[in-house]
Amino acid sequence: MENSNIEKIVTEVVELLKKRKLTISTAESCTGGLLSQLITSVSGASEVFELGICTYSERIKHEFLGVPTEEIEKYDVVSEQVALSMVKGLKERSGADICISVTGIAGPGGGTPEKPVGTVYIGFDICGDRFVELPKLWELEDRSRENIRRSAAAFAFETVAKRLGL
Fold it and tell me: What global pTM score does this model have?
């Protein structure tokens, strides 16, 4: 995962969305609004950007995105199931063509042997195709909080770019 060219890929994604008249929304936890910030740093993003919400706490994930509390209790807030529920709720509330959710452990603390720092689930709804990815960010040489967050964002935009044929 190469996050040094993240601004370039985000610009390409925003330009493609403008060209195709598609919209995008984000629901972020560990990335803390980074995806939204990257999108809005591109001139003309207002044509495609619908909503960016930072749903950091479990309560807000439940209240704003409809993530079932039972799901959080059963699978943990950092899980494939929660990322999927987050993106589902985001799609229902924003209606955007492209929806991205992020939940994970950016560190430096909070990791466990089962879920080390760098465990980040990214949910997608790309024109109705809904899925979750788990990039292996725990394998990064630089596992600093900033690098994990930027790498998660880079992975999210690279995934959207690939799915849209960029």
Answer: 0.96
Which tokens in the block code for residue 116?
């080390």
**Locus of tokens 């394998």:** 139
- Phi, psi angle pair for 3, to nearest 5°: -100, 5
- Closest by alpha carbon to 39, among 103, 122, 99? 99
User: What number of other Cβ atoms are within 10 A of residue 4's Cβ?
Assistant: 8
What does the block give as tokens for 66?
């409809």
Kindly give, in sequence order, each residue whose CB lies less than 8 Å from that of residue 35, ignoring residues fewer than 6 positions away.
Answer: 26, 28, 52, 100, 102, 153, 156, 157
Distance, in Å, from the CA atom of 11 to the CA atom of 157, rounded to the nearest integer, reads: 10
Q: What are phi and psi of 90, to 5 degrees?
A: -65, -45
Rounded CA-CA distance 97/39 in Å is: 15
Residue-wise pLDDT tens digits, 26-79: 999 999 999 999 999 999 999 999 999 999 999 999 999 999 999 999 999 999
Question: For 90-104, how does the pLDDT look when each residue is reduced to its tens digit (9 = 90+)?
Answer: 999 999 999 999 999
